[in-house]
Write a structure and sequence with these properties.
Radius of gyration: 30 Å
Mean pLDDT: 85
Helix content: 55-70%
Low-confidence stretches: 1-36, 38-46, 368-386
Distance between the termini: 45 Å
Number of strands: 2
Number of helices: 13
Structural class: mainly alpha
Length: 389
């Protein structure tokens, strides 16, 4: 579209050949007509330009790899990983924004119904999530996505980056709606050791693979990349996020903070897809590269992640709230960790850990009718058509 405010420089007027008209007079001189000479063109055969080297062979699905592939990264099909495209389509069917959810009752609940212990839980869960989703956005956008060498993988991860930004908007919307002190909430991850500990653990495990010069043709680096991506998908998103929403859902089950909880339900659906996709990529990577993850490294990962989660739960739930406690939180973390290990084909880190919160999975699978006068019926538009975990 033209912008008529832009400066415009007219094209130079082309020079015309001298006119061969005779009888021109100038200053008393008679000018002779100028007749241009024409040399006949010789007949020649012009060879066609050689085809570019990249056009020598079509891209085959077998040329693609998770990393270190040689196929054209700009050519989507043929697919080698059709499941990645299905993840992208499914993610778009769960499209939503925080403005679609009515939070008027949450304002009343927060200021007039929640106990001090419940406000402590709500605020600190929110404080952890605000930073975690930005960390997740940067990790996918800067560390993982650029290292994928199949476009169908990158396309879903581009959607994932958007969704992490959308989640951050959601937490900001909750903070603004409830009129919380933004600086105080956002800075808790820096000043509360139990929140900061989880963030620092994630930074340490992801720091090296964030580098653009991280060489994945090196087998040791490839193992580190697989282990870091496993941590991110299975623990950070698959356990810490998945289990991390449960204190708010416990309030929702008692009729409190239902708008904020509904926001987290949509986020949780996104995170289930993120987790499933990431673990599928790790399994594919291990298969293609003939990698086997070090069992000691896996055991160390679970141990330190459980320790960080235990410290976090002990702070957030220092006083149990009705229907939820730190002990329940940690027990459910172990149960979900076992599920993630099975999904990746690894031994369970906590054999026999019970499912102490069976209602947590319902938060992902829940399909409910809504009062048209209370909230928009987004279930019927998008999320209601989805199958989960």
């Amino acid at each position: 579209m033209l912008n008529f405010e832009d400066s415009f420089t007219p094209a130079a007027t082309p020079m015309m050949p001298p006119s061969p008209l005779a009888g021109l007079e100038k200053g008393g001189l008679r000018l002779q007509p100028v007749v241009p000479s024409v040399t006949p063109l010789a007949t020649a055969t012009i060879a066609p330009a050689p085809a570019p080297a990249s056009a020598a062979r079509s891209v085959r699905a077998d040329d693609k790899r998770v990393v270190n592939g040689q196929a054209d990264i700009n050519q989507l099909a043929p697919f080698k990983y059709p499941w990645a495209w299905e993840y992208f389509l499914k993610a778009n069917r769960n499209h939503w924004t925080p403005l679609e959810i009515n939070m008027a009752q949450d304002v009343h609940d927060y200021h007039h119904k929640l106990t001090p212990a419940e406000r402590h839980v709500f605020e600190n869960v929110l404080a952890y999530l605000t930073t975690s989703d930005i960390l997740a956005m940067r990790n996918i956008g800067l560390a993982v996505m650029e290292k994928m060498s199949a476009p169908e993988l990158q396309i879903y991860q581009a959607r994932q980056v958007y969704e992490e930004a959308l989640h951050t908007w959601t937490y900001q919307h909750c903070i603004e709606t409830l009129n919380l002190d933004q600086a105080e909430i956002y800075n808790r991850y820096r000043v509360v050791p139990e929140i900061n500990g989880k963030i620092q653990l994630a930074n340490r495990r992801l720091e090296r693979i964030l580098r653009s010069d991280f060489d994945l043709t090196n087998r040791d680096n490839l193992h580190e990349f697989a282990l870091s991506y496993l941590f991110f998908a299975a623990v950070f998103e698959g356990c810490w996020f998945y289990n991390g929403f449960s204190p708010i859902f416990a309030l929702q089950r008692r009729g409190l903070m239902k708008g904020a909880a509904e926001q987290l339900q949509y986020i949780m659906r996104d995170e289930v897809l993120h987790c499933g996709f990431g673990m599928r990529v790790v399994r594919q990577l291990l298969q293609e590269e003939g990698l086997e993850l070090d069992p000691d490294a896996i055991a160390a990962m679970w141990q330190e992640c459980e320790a960080a989660e235990t410290a976090y739960a002990s702070f957030v739930l220092r006083e149990p709230i009705l229907g939820y406690s730190a002990d329940l939180h940690i027990a459910q973390f172990r149960h979900i960790a076992n599920r993630r290990a099975r999904q990746i084909g690894l031994a369970e880190p906590y054999p026999g850990a019970p499912n102490v919160l069976p209602w947590l999975d319902e938060q992902v699978n829940l399909r409910k009718e809504k009062n048209f006068f209370e909230t928009r019926v987004t279930e019927y538009q998008t999320g209601g058509a989805l199958a989960w975990d």
